[in-house]
Amino acid sequence: MDLIANLAHGFGVALTFNNLLFCLIGCIIGTAIGVLPGIGPVATISLLLPITFGQPATTAVIMLAGIYYGAQYGGSTTAILLNLPGEVSSVVTTLEGYKMARRGRAGAALTVAALASFFAGCVSTVLVAASGPLLTSVALSFGPADYFSLMMLGLIISAVLAQGSVVKSIGMVVFGVALGLVGTDVQTGQQRFTFGIPELSDGVGFVSIAMGMFGIAEIILNLEKPEARSVMSGKVGSLMMTREEVRRAIPSVLRGTTVGSLLGILPGGGAALSSFGSYMMERKVSKGRHEFGTGAIEGVAGPEAANNAASQTSFIPLLTLGIPANAVMALMVGALIIQGIQPGPRMVEAQPDLFWGLIASMWLGNLMLLIINLPMIGLWVKLLAIPYRHMYPSILIFCAIGVYSLQNNVFDVYQTVFFGLFGYLCSKLRLEPAPMLIGFVLGPMMEEHLRRAMLLSRGDPMVFVQRPISATMLAIGAIALIAMLLPNIRKGKDKALQE
Amino acid sequence: MKLNTKDLLSAGLFIAFAVVGLWLNQDHNLGTARRMGPGYMPMLTFWLLIGLGSFVLVSGLFNGPDPLAKWSSAEIGFLIAGALAGVAVGMVAARIPGFPSSGWNPLGIGLFVGCLVAAVPPGWRALFLPSAAFTLFGLVLEPLGFLVAITLTVICAAFADREHLERPLGVAGLIAFLCVLCWAIFIWYLDIRVPLWPQI
Questions:
Q1: Which of A192, A409, A451 sits opposite B42 (nearest CB)?
Q2: Across the interface, which of A193, A447, A458 has its CB nearest the CB of B34?
Q3: With contact defined as beta carbons under 8 Å apart, do A412 and A403 qualify?
Q4: pLDDT the model gives residue A418
């Protein structure tokens, strides 16, 4: 009964005019950037972080969350109509969705994508609501050693699941942790690695890193390759699905929702990974598997359900444990910390408005997305007429004003340029920026827990393997690492991520 | 040879960063494992990074070849020239009284000039012109105000795309649009403290 009372409270929060408005704004922006290739949710959220500071924390998080799951809706539109994935998570949708469009079933593909997303969104929202208090009560029994190991596990898995070399990704995580050390030491007040620069005593700017490595570096990379944008051919056709299509799509949606919900919780998981996972599964088990490659509706329904489910369940580790599962969640941590809220297990109790309001808003947001997407599909496709040469100066300007307005200091602007150049270098060297951002966010927390754990254990590092929770986490982490070093599994992963 | 250039450079980056970090970390008290000082965690982190870097280095000797894209001699030359020019101009600016040396302006001026010089070869324009434009914004925002900063930044960034040069009217339209939009969002709605017009 608690759950219902809490949810009712959440709806009370989410249904206030301001929160509804910002949920809608988030969903609209999310759909727009989902449709537009060349700008993703990570860049957009870091771009809009400064704008959210004037808002209450709940409103800010509601809007940012809307951008993330809204992008999953929007990404599928261009994937189906133009064979052009607006987001990484909709790459697999192009495989079957575009084929369906070529067969004249574009309307049905769009409908099934939107309905599958909506269904998955509703289910995973309930999952977030149910698991939140449960996991929180578990998390409250965690000691500092357990926390340290949990974060270690999160970092390892996020590196293992990142694209490319695992060792290089772990290197980027450690790089991020090292960057996170810059600033004032919390316990002694000593300045570390600040070179006497007062601006660095609060640490390297989180927003500068995110905007530089995801915003500016992405602009540069997009400008380097010539623009290739196809024009839509053919018509959308009827949005109605045939009875046969409905019958085939339902089991896929259910499977996709399950796969997505599970993979979303994993650190390093999230929308992209789960849509791949679901596609692989549909190709193996669905009834229409022999049709794959020619426009099977299962190949649209499953991944679309999965990526939306995952984009919502990836909030679970953040809201209950304070651990970001992917780069978008790392940005949410940044947003919360700047608002003065330390994410962690006490958040559900200490910030009921935020937790339950966010959950209720997710459900409302999914409903809004369904309405903004299906009937207005033509409008969104028109967005593609905006050439990138008009987009990138606008993104630059928004980044610049946003980063300056953080502290009214031009140092942050120059810092962002450095991270932009660094992000470009990283992409040329195939170093992943996302693990670095997660390492940067978790680094300071890890240091604090490590110090506390070692103080409690009187300097005995065995505490990490003696406590059962901590030992389990470390064991899982070790298994994941060893598994990735085995050539067979690694090849399987590379294949799965490339397809 | 099966050298993996990308891995070798990544390893170099990791190790160099960690060595510099360890060297700087000498200033900090390590403490003991029980009572860790400010230097303990950095020490662990940097040694771990050296270890990972060495692993990448050794495996990079065998798992290639994975070369970087070829750079032309002009690209290499102007990259070095840009770096040198940036440092030199920044240092000179720091000695000129008034605007060039106040606050973070030497850094901004150096960065801007460096990026502009490096953007001379066409291959670098996509990389350095947006960076220069971004720096320019920081440089002119406070003295010349919000609207001028937007205008100059868009103009500078526009040079990164060939098509803009053929359609100057499109750039003008973009500037007008962005000025109105940014004014509405940042000044009118968010009310950030920024001069709107030149401060002279």
A1: A192
A2: A458
A3: yes
A4: 93
Residues B104 and B147 grouped into a single domain: yes
Q: Report if residue B199 sits inside a domain.
A: no
A3 vs A465, which has greater pLDDT?
Answer: A465
Q: Shortest Cα distance from A415 to chain B (angstroms)?
A: 9
| B50 and B91 both lie in a single domain | no
CB-CB contact of A435 with A162 (8 Å)? yes
Mutate to test the interface with A, among B24, B62, B137 (most CBs of A within 10 A): B137
Closest Cβ opposite residue B164 in set A167, A389, A459: A389
Q: What's the distance, CA B29 to chain centroid?
A: 32
Structure tokens at A306: 């999965």
> Is the pTM higher than 0.90?
no
In a domain, B70, yes or no: no
Q: What angle do CA A386, A415, B81 make, to 5 degrees?
A: 90
Q: Is the pLDDT of residue A497 over 70?
A: no
pLDDT tier, A499 (very low <50, low <70, confident <90, very high otherwise): very low
The CA-based diameter of chain A, rounded to the nearest angstrom, is: 71
Residue B26, number of CB atoms within 10 A of its CB: 9
A contact residues 402-431, partner B, Cβ 8 Å cutoff: 404-405, 408-411, 413-414, 416-417, 420-421, 424-425, 428-431
Closest-CA residue of A relative to B105 is A410
Q: Compare all CA atoms of chain A with the CA of B163 and give the residue at the minimum distance.
A: A389
Q: Is the ipTM of this complex over 0.90?
A: yes
Q: How many domains does the structure of chain B reveal?
A: 2
Residue of B9, B43, B134 to mutate, interface with A, max A Cβ within 10 Å: B134
Q: How many CB atoms lie within 10 A of CB A222?
A: 17
| B42/A185 touch (CB, cutoff 8 Å), yes or no | no
Write down the pLDDT at residue A414.
92
Calpha distance A304→A97 (Å, rounded): 10
User: CA-to-CA distance for A266 and A313, rounded, in angstroms?
Assistant: 9
Shortest Cα distance, chain B CAs vs residue A221, angstroms: 8
Q: Phi and psi (nearest 5°) for A345?
A: -65, -20
**Residue A452, CA atoms < 13 Å, CB-side half-sphere:** 16
State pLDDT tens for residues B151-194. 999 999 888 887 777 788 888 888 999 999 888 888 887 777 78
Domain check: are B114 and B49 in the same one?
A: no
Q: How far apart are CA A291 and CA A245, in angstroms?
A: 13
Q: How far is B155 from chain A (nearest CA, A)?
A: 9
Q: Which residue has the tokens 């989902």?
A: A34
Is residue B149 assigned to a domain? Answer: yes
Does residue B66 lie in a domain region? no
Q: Cα separation of B168 and B96, whole Å?
A: 36
Cα separation, A394 vs B178, whole angstroms: 7
Q: What angle is formed at CA A60 by the lines to CA B136 and CA A221, rounded to 5 degrees?
A: 40
Between CA A175 and CA B25 the distance in angstroms is 15
Q: How far apart are CA A108 and CA A246, in angstroms?
A: 10
Which domain does A129 fall in, by range?
2-144+193-435
Domain span at residue B20 reads 5-60
| Residues with Cβ within 8 Å of residue A448, at least 6 apart in sequence | A144, A186
pLDDT at A268: 66
Q: Are B34 and A453 in contact (CB under 8 A)?
A: no
Q: Measured between CB atoms, which of A190, A417, A425 is closest to B131?
A: A417
* Residue A358 to residue A86: CA distance in whole angstroms: 25
Question: A-B interface: how many C-beta pairs under 8 angstroms?
Answer: 193
* pLDDT single digits (tens) A73-107: 888 888 888 777 777 777 788 888 888 888 888 88
Assigned token pair, A311: 């984009």
